[in-house]
Amino acid sequence: MTDRIPLPLPHSFWLHLVLPRAGVLLALVVIGTALRVPVGLLYVLLAADVVLFVKQALRFQASADNHLRGMGGMTLIWGGYLVLLVLVFASISLWWGAFLFAGQPVEPPELFTDRMDRQYAAEYELTLSDDHTSLTFNGTITHGLTKRVTTLMAENPQLDTVILTSIGGHIYEARGFANLIRAKGLNTTVKGDCSSACTLVFAAGTQRGLSPGARLGFHSYALEFGPALLNLDLKKEQDKDRAFFRSQGINESFLIQMFDEPSTGLWYPSRAEAQQVGLLTP
């Protein structure tokens, strides 16, 4: 039996060195970034890669020796050695990354409800003052707000004022927020505009005021999506909230017209009007 004849050096460079190692490096990129492999299995794969790399190097060296015997120059050989050195460092780096990735704790996938809560919470800001006596709400009244405010109020019993800036939003969440304010006997004030469902939250305050330039905006109710839903009567919903305003001492003359403005517009009563009908407290 005769020994295997080494391939010509250029062929060996590509077939024994570059192409197999490129496949290994590509696999290491996947293992180190996307495919989480158990650490024990990584050690087995590492040992197999070391054996493979040694065989690659030996085959290239055999071709290099044969190249020299054929009176070939050293340029191709030194070029192959340089590539071999680069491949060594690349392999070490990727193997290190693969072990680091495998050792990272696996975080459980985010629950759908948690993701939705996070997305809704991004639509508004809740900020406590330094002395924790006032809570500023800025943004859209949306799902999960009542739950968050309940927690904040429980953690900060010294709260006495809620500062509002909002274009409105979900009326059921506004009712929840308003009931919390009324139950705690908190005061409310507006900074900027407080429109639509926000006015219900404002009306819940024991003492109610407007900062300079602030406005209250009122309009009739409308569904956020499409035509009226079954079993939902917008007039009854308006009457329900009109009764809430009445219970907060708002004048009946204002209650009659508070929902007259179409849902596509806003009615901003003047500060004097708001004072006269009881929206603002002395």
UniProtKB/TrEMBL annotation:
Which residue spans traverse the membrane? 12-31, 37-54, 75-96
Q: Which domain of life is it from?
A: Bacteria
InterPro entries assigned to the protein according to its UniProt record, in alphabetical order: ClpP/crotonase-like_dom_sf
Keywords (alphabetical) are: Membrane, Transmembrane, Transmembrane helix
Name of this protein: Clp protease
Biological source species: Parasedimentitalea marina
